[in-house]
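Q: Here's a chain of 65 amino acids. Please give me its 3D structure as tokens.
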Amino acid sequence: MNIDIIFKIAAIGILITVICQILKKSDRDDIATLVSLAGLIIVLTFVISMIADLFESIKNIFNLY
């Protein structure tokens, strides 16, 4: 497993948190919610691709299909 993906996810989390805090301080709660939702979707795309690679590796190891 590559450690770079963990750093990318952490960096996205920190960036989204800072942006949300700035938006909440300026009374833009609706936009802050959308930004946090967008960050969640970005991280989920990383995780879904990693899970797909895991299943592909399992298929190759056990000679399935």
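Q: Can you summarize the key feature?
A: Residues 4-61 form one domain.
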